[in-house]
Amino acid sequence: MKKIYLLTLLLLTITTNVWAFGQSTIMEEHLNSGKRQGSIPIVDGVQDINLQKNINTVLKEAAKKLGEEAGGQTSISYKVTFNRPSMFSVILKAAGDKTLYKGINIDITSGKECDTKDFFYVKDDFNNLVGDKSYVFSEDGLLLAASEGAAYSEQIPYTALLKYLNIASCARFMTGYKVTEATEGKTLPLKVGNLVSLYLPSNPSTGFDWYMANTDKMSGVVGIGNSFFLPINANPNTVGVPGNTIVFFSFDKPGTYKVNFEYKRPWVQQASKTMTYNFIVQ
Predict the structure, then answer these.
(1) How far is residue 162's CA from residue 250's CA, in Å, rounded to a whole number?
(2) Which of 123, 63, 112, 121 is CA-nearest to residue 88?
(3) How confident is the model at residue 22 (pLDDT cuts 50, 70, 90)?
(4) Range list for CATH 2.60.40.2020 in the chain
(5) Which of 248, 247, 260, 153 is nearest to 194 (CA)?
(6) Quick check: 156 and 142 in contact, CB under 8 A?
(7) Which of 70, 198, 215, 243 is in Cβ range 3.0-4.6 Å of 230 for a Cys bridge?
(8) Helix H or strand E segment including 155
(9) 131-163 residue pLDDT tens
(10) CATH, domain 175-281, list 2.60.40.2020, 2.60.40.10, 3.40.190.10, 3.20.20.300
């Protein structure tokens, strides 16, 4: 229960710190110093000024190092590949004696570069896809560099990474939709790889919880996992307080889907309650 409460507090902290606007504010700073010219990204508008300074130091130091490695008279430029309120990704480019690239994923909530383990469960299959290659986030998937300093020309769509997602963080970089019991029976249009977070009232202390009921033989539906959170004013030390189960899932194929959810004890076949939602996936 304490973990659930702490997760709720973490989400509230993130919201207060950086979710007031739809994107991170990324400004352009021009360079005209010695052998380096061009422009680099800097952030503004972060509530914690120390985090903002840390982020801009990371970006400036990375651009400086990349320019030195490129050698000669160097032109620095960048491209923003992904921008969300709590994180963003950029690719720095240094064109000098040689042309080099450097991808950076910034976590605004910590003021540091993102850690892969914060977003993905790093398993053997994940390593086979991504390995130790440098990557940045984009709207549709990860962009990878074939080798250190190379262009980020390889893409792995998020649909190929669904089963490795850390459900506590995946909503930060995936396009997602919140669905509740109020729209039971309705239809949600979405795209392949979009995340669905279904919020349903529950009380797991009774042994009951929500389960996807008819997806075992339904190709295209990918269950990501469940989470549970208490109401904000609930005492985390109190046993048996009802809250909400969040069922996370997505789709890796286009099509029309009718997905059933059952509220039941896992050892009992009969469900206490059922919910059905429809999805049109393009």
Answers:
(1) 8
(2) 112
(3) low
(4) 175-281
(5) 248
(6) yes
(7) 243
(8) strand 154-157
(9) 889 999 999 899 999 999 999 999 999 999 998
(10) 2.60.40.2020
Mention every residue, 6+ apart, whose C-beta is less than 8 A from residue 75: 37, 38, 94, 95, 96
Please identify which residue in the block is written with the tokens 């450097």: 102
Phi, psi at 97, each rounded to 5°? -60, -30
Residue in the block written with tokens 């019991």: 181
Phi, psi of 13 (to 5 degrees): -65, -45
| Cα torsion angle, 142, 143, 145, 146, sign | positive
The number of beta carbons lying within 10 Å of the beta carbon of residue 190 is: 17
The 3-state DSSP composition of the chain as helix, strand, coil percent (nearest 5) reads 20, 45, 35
Q: What is the pLDDT of residue 180?
A: 95
Q: Are 105 and 119 in contact (CB under 8 A)?
A: no
Rounded distance between C-alpha atoms, residue 248 and residue 269, angstroms: 22
Query: Considering only CA atoms, which of 268, 247, 233 is closest in space to residue 200?
Result: 247
Report the mean per-residue pLDDT for the chain: 88
- The 273-281 sheet, strands edge to edge: 187-190, 273-281, 255-264, 209-212
Quote the tokens at residue 120. 């993905």
CB 187 within 8 A of CB 278: yes
Using the structure block, give the residue that is written with the tokens 């021009």: 30
**pTM for the structure as a whole:** 0.80
